[in-house]
């Protein structure tokens, strides 16, 4: 069944931006409900109320939509961590602040895994460049914050902390949020209980150990 467009083709710049924003908002909502992996371009089009061809006037692929959302998520996480750690000091505060703000952002954690594994491979180099620049800007800001909170890690090692925590969180999120069928399997069999991680304490513990290694000079 064909869907009936809910808006006419945008011709003015402000209308095009409204369409652009509406598509991204729909993709965000769907991904939060279903997970990034399960959302197709057709799903996004149906949520907005347009044909897939209309979506392609604004984005080259579904992957570009999610990369743009990922760039927004990096900036949102950076802002949240700065607010969380205002006036804080010490490795535990840094580790808990990073892990707590990640746990509060399920879509971002999901995108952390999908960006390098899938999304970046199905867009133009220009789209990847814009995403990477946004992510690096956020990481640079968080790196400076990490050094302020834990000066002992060294001025040039903050980037390592944020990058390592982000990479670990990407995997830990997938392991701690299995599909419904696997979650039921793990819950039914005590032998499989360890297969499903507890996300926030696991990431926090990893961050503390990683920071301790930098502070003590263990490479």
Automatic annotation (TrEMBL):
Pfam families for the chain: TetR_C_34 (PF17929), TetR_N (PF00440)
Molecular function GO labels: DNA-binding transcription factor activity; transcription cis-regulatory region binding
Top-level taxonomic group: Bacteria
Entry keywords, A to Z: DNA-binding
UniProt DNA-binding region: 40-59
Keyword DNA-binding included in the entry's annotation: yes
HTH tetR-type domain mapped to chain residues: 17-77
Protein name: TetR family transcriptional regulator
Organism encoding this protein: Umezawaea tangerina
